[in-house]
């Protein structure tokens, strides 16, 4: 599922954009959850409270929080989000570029330029999704870049994911299920209750897998040779 937000203080513009996005999705056989905002501060608040979006279509000139400030704020919480600015004011194009905005579309060119921008954005999101582990529940959406995952441990009926910054997040799934859901070969079991990211293994000594941040995890004898082989293959691929 792709999550899209549309933000413009003009209700008519919001409805036009939503209609065009839905038409594109239907024509392209894509599925998305679309949320509309007519007040930028509401979008800001939702993201602060944990709301996730893959793509945001936003006006620039809006009361209270303009599009530029909104984009800068959103990027702090969702650094991978794609933002398309749709506005009548060309003078903002350079500033939008500096904010790493995905696309900039003048309002008088929505019909001709929005479909291609949406196509490119969705293709980019699909590429990014292959490099993320997604947690989706009725009340929560979280996408974790693989490169930020240090290791995963079993904790009862949960799997606990520890990240490079030592923060943790839980998902109510078995370790086996989480491992199957990874679309990456860069993870390996070190024993029945621990999975580690090969990219963050610093070494193996006396049956102990040493990770970044000083983390040390014991490896089972049965898994040790497999870990060494996978680690050797991984390191050779990085050369």
From TrEMBL:
Record domain HTH LytTR-type: where: 133-233
Coiled-coil regions, chain positions: none
SMART domains: LytTR, REC
Response regulatory domain sequence ranges: 3-122
SUPFAM superfamilies (alphabetical): CheY-like
Lyase in keyword set: no
Organism superkingdom: Bacteria
Keywords: Activator, Cytoplasm, DNA-binding, Phosphoprotein, Two-component regulatory system
PANTHER family associated with the record: STAGE 0 SPORULATION PROTEIN A HOMOLOG (PTHR37299:SF3), TRANSCRIPTIONAL REGULATOR-RELATED (PTHR37299)
Protein function: May play the central regulatory role in sporulation. It may be an element of the effector pathway responsible for the activation of sporulation genes in response to nutritional stress. Spo0A may act in concert with spo0H (a sigma factor) to control the expression of some genes that are critical to the sporulation process. Required for high-level post-exponential phase expression of a series of secreted proteins.
Protein name: Stage 0 sporulation protein A homolog
Natural source organism: Faecalimonas umbilicata
Lineage per the UniProt record: Bacteria, Bacillati, Bacillota, Clostridia, Lachnospirales
């Amino acid at each position: 599922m792709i999550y899209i937000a549309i933000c413009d203080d003009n209700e008519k513009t919001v409805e036009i954009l939503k209609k065009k996005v839905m038409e594109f999705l239907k024509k392209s056989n894509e599925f998305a959850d679309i949320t509309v905002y007519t007040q930028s501060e509401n979008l800001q608040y939702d993201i602060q409270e944990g709301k996730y979006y893959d793509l945001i279509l936003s006006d620039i000139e809006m009361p209270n929080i303009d599009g530029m400030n909104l984009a800068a704020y959103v990027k702090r919480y969702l650094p991978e989000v794609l933002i398309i600015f749709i506005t009548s004011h060309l003078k903002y194009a350079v500033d939008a570029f500096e904010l790493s905005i995905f696309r900039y579309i003048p309002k008088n060119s929505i019909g001709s330029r929005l479909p291609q921008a949406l196509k490119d954005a969705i293709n980019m999101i699909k590429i990014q999704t292959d490099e993320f582990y997604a947690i989706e529940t009725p009340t929560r959406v979280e996408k974790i870049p693989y490169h930020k995952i240090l290791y995963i441990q079993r904790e009862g009926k949960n799997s606990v994911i520890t990240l490079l910054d030592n923060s943790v997040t839980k998902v109510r799934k078995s370790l086996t299920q989480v491992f199957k859901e990874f679309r990456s070969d860069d993870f390996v079991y070190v024993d029945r209750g621990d999975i580690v990211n090969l990219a963050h293994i610093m070494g193996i000594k006396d049956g102990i897998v040493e990770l970044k941040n000083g983390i040390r995890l014991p490896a089972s004898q049965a898994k040790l040779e497999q870990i060494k082989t996978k680690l050797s293959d991984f390191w050779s691929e990085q050369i």
